[in-house]
């Protein structure tokens, strides 16, 4: 059994829920190169060796079109329908359901397997932050483990720390850590807490220079840590900007652009149109209705920013 999952909390949690729901003892879980929306050669080699494949919380329907093995594709992003008959695509959004009812892949996984526990809630908190606490089911699931809101948010920060410090192996190992430790033990997990100290320092450095226009913040920095989404979330969710365009000009030899908007702008800015425009120009872009992420060559930064600025105008 092969599980291919996103590198963030929701992807890791969705994998752990799948393992628990199926009572798997023999499985391999892997993630794409952190920050890149593609299957690399390592993933493709594992696909060749596997009998059955799960793809979780990865908005990459194009990557499974040529797989000739039983594949279960579970997601909650806006995406195209998969034509490959070997692939079973589980995505309530494609059936017309609201994203409010399926805030995370963990919710889709839990419903699909009829298996719910506190992890289902942690996945939702990982994807939509404090808004998850407006969902009664999230609060009920957290209460089952006596977890408060602050503890849930802290747990997300700790799990996410693995991808933010760019440790692909640690992201994959996090699935086993989550499966083997109780919530209280996860909150005290030493390695993750040390990661978080370094990350928080890098984020504070990044937000020290903000430019604002029409309530949209723009920040530019250089960091080896994958903090770009965290910086954008802090600007929109905590600091109250309507949107945030964040640029990391030197991320392991490449550049990153990340655009997040608040719920106030979701109806005005069609993020899927922006994402498709960038894809049409052969950029490695992905996201959902409030988020756009793109990793690219440094020389192409201005082109991507121009596409975003033209759309906003």
UniProtKB/TrEMBL annotation:
InterPro entries assigned to the protein according to its UniProt record, in alphabetical order: DDH_dom, DHH_sf
Superkingdom as given in the UniProt entry: Archaea
Domain DDH: 2-114
Name the UniProt record assigns to this protein: Phosphoesterase RecJ domain protein
Lineage per the UniProt record: Archaea, Methanobacteriati, Methanobacteriota, Methanomada group, Methanococci
